[in-house]
Amino acid sequence: MLFSLGDGCSTSPGVVGVQDYGQVTGRVLDAMTNRPIAAALVSVGSLYTASADARGAFTLTKVPAGDQTVTARAPGYSPATADITIEKDKGASIGYIRLVPLIHPAGLPTLAPPPTPTPKTSPSMEPTEAPAPGVAPTPGGEPNPAAAPPSSAAPSPVVPSPSPSSSTSS
Predict the structure, then answer these.
(1) DSSP letter (8 states) at residue 15
(2) Which of 26, 74, 88, 163 has the fewest CB within 10 Å, making it most exposed?
(3) Cα distances (angstroms) measured from residue 162 to each of 156, 165, 169
(4) What confidence tens digit (pLDDT) does each residue in 79-114 have?
(5) What domains are defined for the chain?
(6) What is the pTM of this model?
C-alpha cells in the first residue's frame, strides 16, 4: 500500500493542513565574544531554514503559526534553541540566539547578550529652553511664531497708515 501526506492541494509538499503562517527574525551571536556568526543555519523543524548574513541576522518566512522551536547551528559551535509563538501574518523577533564554541577555555563564562538597540532622539531635535506661551518650537529648538496655534482672543486689525508719497492723482 502506498500512502501520501497531504491532499495534493497544499502549497508545500509534506505539510498537512497548515494554512496560517508568520515570520521569525533574529541574530546569531558567538556567546564568548558577542560577535555575529555569519552563515549559521537557522531552522524551525527541517522544512523551514535560513542562513544568517554577515551581521548574524536571519529571517525565516512562511513559518507555521503556533508554538515553534528555532534552532541555530554553525561549524565549531554547539547548537542552541529558542522557543517562540508565531502569530498568523505577523513577524516575531526572537532576539539573539547565542552559540557556545565547542572549544573554549575551561571556566571562562560567556558574555551577557548585548543590549537591544532602541531609537534615540537626536540632540538637535530637543528644544534647549521652553518656548514662549503660544509659540511652537521648531525642530532646531528655535521658537517659530508662524507655527503657533491661533489664540482665543480676536486679533487686532492692522490699519495701514497713509504715507505722504502715496497720494497721487488720477
Answers:
(1) -
(2) 163
(3) 18, 9, 15
(4) 999 999 999 999 999 999 999 999 877 888 888 888
(5) 21-99 (2.60.40.10)
(6) 0.57
